[in-house]
Amino acid sequence: MSVDPTLNGSSTNGSSTNGSSTNGLSTEGSGTEGSGTASKSAAAIDRAKAQGRAALICYIPAGYPDVQTTIDAGIALARNGADLIEIGIPYSDPVMDGAVIQAATTEAIANGFRVSSIFDIVAGITAATDAAVLVMTYWNPVLRLGVDEFSRRLAAAGGAGLITPDLIPEEASQWLEASQKYGLDRVFLVAPSSTPERLARTVEASRGFVYAVSIMGVTGTRTAVSSTAESLVVNTRAAGAARVCVGLGVSNAEQVREIAGYADGVIVGTALVAALRDGGVPALAELTTDLSSGLRPAGTEAH
Amino acid sequence: MATTPAASPQDHPADAFLSGATSPAGGTSTNPSAGSVTGAGSFRHAAGPYFGSYGGRWMPESLIAALDELEETFEKAKVDPEFLAQIADLNKNYSGRPSLLTEAKRFSAHAGGARIFLKREDLNHTGSHKINNVLGQALLAKRMGKTRVIAETGAGQHGVASATAAALLGLECVVYMGAEDCRRQALNVARMQLLGATVVPVTNGSQTLKDAINEALRDWVANVDSTHYLLGTAAGAHPFPAMVRFFHEVIGEEARGQILEQTGRLPDAVCACIGGGSNAIGIFHGFLDDASVRLYGFEAGGDGVETGRHAATITLGRPGVLHGARSYLMQDEDGQTVESHSISAGLDYPGVGPEHAYLADIGRVSYEPITDAEAMEAFQLLCRTEGIIPAIESAHALAGAIKVGQRLTADQADPAETIIVVNLSGRGDKDVETAAAWFDLIDAETAAEAVAEAVIRAADTAADAASNSAPNAAEANQWNGK
Ligand SMILES: Cc1ncc(COP(=O)(O)O)c(C=O)c1O
């Protein structure tokens, strides 16, 4: 069950000094909130929660095959059940991605994708939908543009924040500062290998939600959701997280249903990219509708 | 993990140091076990994770636990007399250390008459300095209870060294190698297979070294419980840069002792080539605190730095993060890694180890590019004047030494007063085909065909000899997402 208030409260956030524990729309951790802007990601997850379900978080790469398609695809995701949208910046060295996403991002770069178009994409989607739009990016493109400049433009485009697969809180001081300044969410990852101390540190640094990787591995579809995912969610909550979403390897409604049973959100990537690759935006929309059917615990389907 | 960089690049402590001040504000020293000059104020034994503002851990969270485990194991091992004795024994009785320091008396005439001494890492078992690092890391892998090692390789030297260490210590070994490099270095693929390793051609991205590293990292994320990633250079996330340097420090320690013994004094300059920077940091380390010794790192200038086809990372790159560390990086305006180019596969990498980035910023080491043509000229010179065929990587250091020798002797009455040590990081057996084609001794296609035939024969032999290589290959392909 994803909405048990005793698990989602901030009872372990004993060090909270800014009152964030009374407000569901604030940071994951306790000590780092400063901006008055509420978390867009947290709000989107809480809207789903209020409907008695987990949130659906859908990933597509930017510029695949072109910028306009990404905007159209993002809007289609939102209209067919995605609560949060994750737009990936194609990068030359994507070490956390498997073959399908690598192929798509390599093609996007070959088609001339430029990092600055990410802001047009985010603005295009946020103008047309209510979904929270996050950017998933390896860190070097952000560093190259400048962490502050990137954050400023993302916020101006209506973006919710960043998911950062190769950035750990220890290296994130510039990002902590910029995200604070512009009111952006900091979605760090936790893994089955994370120690309790690291979970606590990562939860503390996060804002919006914490991304729990379901398995030790890279993106790609898996036939079964590993049992480590559920215990990771439990441990991450125990470390103080108010919202934990699970990703890596999720590809169908059945897996979505399983994860929605214990997490606050379910993240799908590779399967959507394959659908976009094989059948364009219509196929993407169809799969999203199907995936969203798994969000309610079995027996509570509603329309 | 420490959080505060030791010194800002703007301080240029080396300037003060080189002009006679006593206290360089370099990396901190924490290693009590080795070296002659340690303690505060030393450039030696910098422990990481940061070298100035470089280094760190820009890595997926999934791998942090493994990096912590490695760091802990390494920190214990490097002060454990038993471990140090194991390393010393393998260095002596397996690799053949100490490697010689050979004066290149006829080559010297081309370097302005300066006396040139070659640190003969080419004479090590497997033919390069790479063996120093792989033996150390393979021992650490065993200490951690890992049964499998993975490695990336460009030219195949590190892959061959890794396969060798794995065979010696009974570890399973999988080597990731760009498909393009597999083709260019077919004989080394066969060597690795003969040693019982599985070679996985990497077909994504630019199909070269950086993509092989990406693929090895993906493997590591998925198999970290059983697997150690045996990174081949002094780059990557902490603790790799400081750890790989530690295993190569023996080069500089030996060289310093040998040059003192042979000439009675310290050299004026030490030259090394820079791929990721492991052979260079290993030899530099012995001389970092000797203010009178100038240190030079030579990067691959490819077709010339003005052509854009090169691997001169420090010369032309800008700071960024790649493969786990902040350092100089060849990147475009968007932060995408730019492909590097060099005739030398071992230098063909768009990044560089973070300690070099720091040493460049503070001015303790000078980094300069050497073009393919300059390197090949030096390659031929060494063959003909000394009877030594160098690795093309090492030929970059030789070409640099020619320039440095000419510069340092320019206004000297007796050029033989100038002494230069060159790290001859490897031998050129692997490069005979490339060199023969460069000098038009054989036409490239005939050579490629001959090699392909040899490889097919070698691979057949390997397949017969190692009955377990087939399942490994199938598994490797699966990890590779094929
Ligand atoms: C003989 C030789 N020298 C130098 C290098 C460059 O590596 P590094 O800069 O780490 O010493 C290589 C890499 O393959 C090599 O094989």
TrEMBL record, chain A:
Could you name the domain of life of the organism this protein comes from? Bacteria
Reactions catalysed: (1S,2R)-1-C-(indol-3-yl)glycerol 3-phosphate + L-serine = D-glyceraldehyde 3-phosphate + L-tryptophan + H2O
Which EC numbers does the record give? Answer: 4.2.1.20
Q: Which GO terms describe its molecular function?
A: tryptophan synthase activity
Active site (UniProt): E86 (proton acceptor), D97 (proton acceptor)
Where does the sequence pass through the membrane?
Answer: none
| Pfam families in UniProt | Trp_syntA
Q: Specify whether Amino-acid biosynthesis is a keyword of the entry.
A: yes
Region (Disordered): which ranges? 1-38
* Low complexity bias spans: 1-30
Which pathway, per its entry?
Answer: Amino-acid biosynthesis; L-tryptophan biosynthesis; L-tryptophan from chorismate: step 5/5
Which keywords are on file for this protein?
Amino-acid biosynthesis, Aromatic amino acid biosynthesis, Lyase, Tryptophan biosynthesis
Q: Which GO terms describe its cellular component?
A: cytosol
Q: How does it assemble?
A: Tetramer of two alpha and two beta chains.
Task: Tell me, in a sentence or two, what this protein's role is.
Answer: The alpha subunit is responsible for the aldol cleavage of indoleglycerol phosphate to indole and glyceraldehyde 3-phosphate.
Record NCBIfam families: trpA
Q: Which family does it belong to?
A: Belongs to the TrpA family.
Which named protein is this? Tryptophan synthase alpha chain
